[in-house]
């Protein structure tokens, strides 16, 4: 059974940092492309970052490029999202999800299995 569990969210001041984790169980993470998404109140879910299963290639949304870094540790079966220089507009519930494609799709519907999400709040 595929299961994803996100953790690491919390309340942080603008300019601060958080590292989100996405721990996978029931399947080897390196066989899947993993995406991070977020959804703010009243807004649609949007893609934030992705790491492909084929070559570890990464994708970042323009809004987070240069501030967020995605990585994975196959030994721990975990994907991370390091978030630096956080802004109030980064406030959202963050989700990780899997896709069997070996590249980062731009279609959220291509990601089949989702975690429960972790809340990130950026506020002074």
Q: Can you tag this structure with a few keywords?
A:
7-stranded mixed sheet; mainly beta; 124 residues; 48% strand; 4-stranded antiparallel sheet; globular
Q: Can you describe what's shown?
A:
With 124 residues, this protein is an all-beta fold. Helices cover 0% and strands 48% of the residues. The protein is built from no helices and eleven strands. It has strands at 3-7, 10-12, 18-25, 33-39, 46-51, 58-60, 68-73, 78-83, 92-99, 113-114, 118-122. The strands form two sheets. Strands 2, 4, 5, 6, 9, 10 and 11 form a seven-stranded mixed β-sheet that branches. The protein has a four-stranded antiparallel β-sheet with strand order 1-3-8-7, with no helix packed on it. The mean pLDDT is 95.
Radius of gyration: 13 Å
State the share of residues found in helices, binned by percent: under 10%
Mean pLDDT: 95
- List the uncertain runs: none
**Which class do the helix and strand fractions yield?**
mainly beta
| Percent of residues in β-strands | over 45%
Assembly type? single chain
What does the main sheet amount to?
7 strands, mixed
Q: Count of helical segments?
A: 0
Shape: globular
Order of helices and strands: EEEEEEEEEEE
How do you describe this structure in short?
It contains no helices and 11 strands. The protein is an all-beta fold.
């Amino acid at each position: 059974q595929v299961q994803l569990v996100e953790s690491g969210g919390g309340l942080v001041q603008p300019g601060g940092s958080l590292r989100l984790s996405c721990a996978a169980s029931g399947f080897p993470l390196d066989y899947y492309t993993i995406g991070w998404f977020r959804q703010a109140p009243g807004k649609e879910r949007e893609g934030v970052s992705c790491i492909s299963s084929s070559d570890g290639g990464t994708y970042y949304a323009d809004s987070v490029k240069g501030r967020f870094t995605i990585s994975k540790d196959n030994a721990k079966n975990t994907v991370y999202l390091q978030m630096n220089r956080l802004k109030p507009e980064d406030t959202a519930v963050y989700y990780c999800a899997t896709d069997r494609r070996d590249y980062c799709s731009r279609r959220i519907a291509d990601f089949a299995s989702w975690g429960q999400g972790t809340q990130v709040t950026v506020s002074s």
